[in-house]
Amino acid sequence: MELRTLRYFVAVAEELHFGRAAARLHMSQPPLSRAIKQLERDVGAVLLDRSSAGVSLTSVGAVLLEEARGLLDQADRMHVRVAAAAGAASLTVGLLGDSADPGIRRLADDYRRRHPHVEVRVRETSLADPTCGLHAGLVDIALTRAPFDETGLTIRELRADPVGALLRADDPLADRDALHLEDLADRRWFVFPEGTDPLWQSYWNGGERREGPVVRAVQECRQAVLWNGTVGITLVNHEPGAGLAVVPLVDMEPSRAVVAWTEGDTNPLVRSFAQAATTALRGAPLRSAVAAPRQRPPDMAGR
């Protein structure tokens, strides 16, 4: 068995969908299907049950998945250790937002345990650059959120998180159980700087052109709402902070957390980090799923 074929199999086994696996591997579906069928012939057993209901692992396929993951992980570790011995073991990771997040800390602990000799350089970026410097060649891999211009990049979705309206806690809408975007149509919104990726800007502005204070960081978003009574969109499971509230938006698509890197990059450190991020972060919210209790804003006048 070739490692490449095992990577194909792992992708299909994890996605349980040939189309999604092919997209993840940046190849068309027919050669992927042929490779899996050849693997089944080599193994001498059916690895995947294919039916109108979808794809599922057979008992033999489940065993191969466990063994293949271990083998591929060992191969990646070998490449990383060789790179470290050659003095080339460094990785620059772009982060969008709060690197003190428990999910990021969990990933950092896991990656350091696996690759203690790799020097990881972290580059935190503003909300104006959702690729965290990938398009500019400033980072090797990024933990960020879609949507944005994916030209020349490989994207792997980790999770989809619900979003809501960020409001002052004394806002007339703050006590609602849920809101629609039209409820915020006549409000001023915080916006990102001119030149920000239009797909990214559009998503966080609810698909409309908005006017309001320009922000570049999460804390600036919160302060814009607190001081000016503007509104915006944030993750429902992020604690808004004192004096702020988050109300779910029922007509907004969830925000997709992704790991992204340059298409065609064969650096084993990048591949290893992407796998570690998938294992540590897929399906698990980066923060508590419950927003902080809504609090009245502090009395600025001291009354």
Strand content: 15-25%
Number of helices: 8
The strand order across the widest sheet is 4-3-5-10-6
Overall 3D form: globular
Specify Rg, calculated over alpha carbons: 22 Å
Distance between the termini: 74 Å
Major β-sheet profile: 5 strands, mixed
Number of DSSP-assigned strands: 10
User: Roughly what is the average pLDDT, rounded to an integer?
Assistant: 86
Write the SSE topology.
Blueprint: H1 3-15, H2 18-25, H3 29-43, E1 48-51, E2 54-57, H4 59-85, E3 90-96, H5 102-114, E4 119-125, E5 141-146, E6 153-161, E7 163-168, H6 198-204, H7 218-228, E8 232-235, E9 244-248, E10 255-262, H8 268-281
Explain this structure to me?
This protein is of the alpha+beta class and 303 residues long. A five-stranded mixed β-sheet has the order 4-3-5-10-6, covered by helices on one side. A three-stranded antiparallel β-sheet has the order 8-7-9. The protein has a two-stranded antiparallel ribbon with strand order 1-2. It has eight helices and ten strands. The longest helix is centred in the N-terminal third of the chain and has 27 residues, at 59-85. Residues 286-303 have low confidence and may be disordered. The termini are far apart. 32% of the residues are buried. The chain is globular, with a radius of gyration of 22 Å.
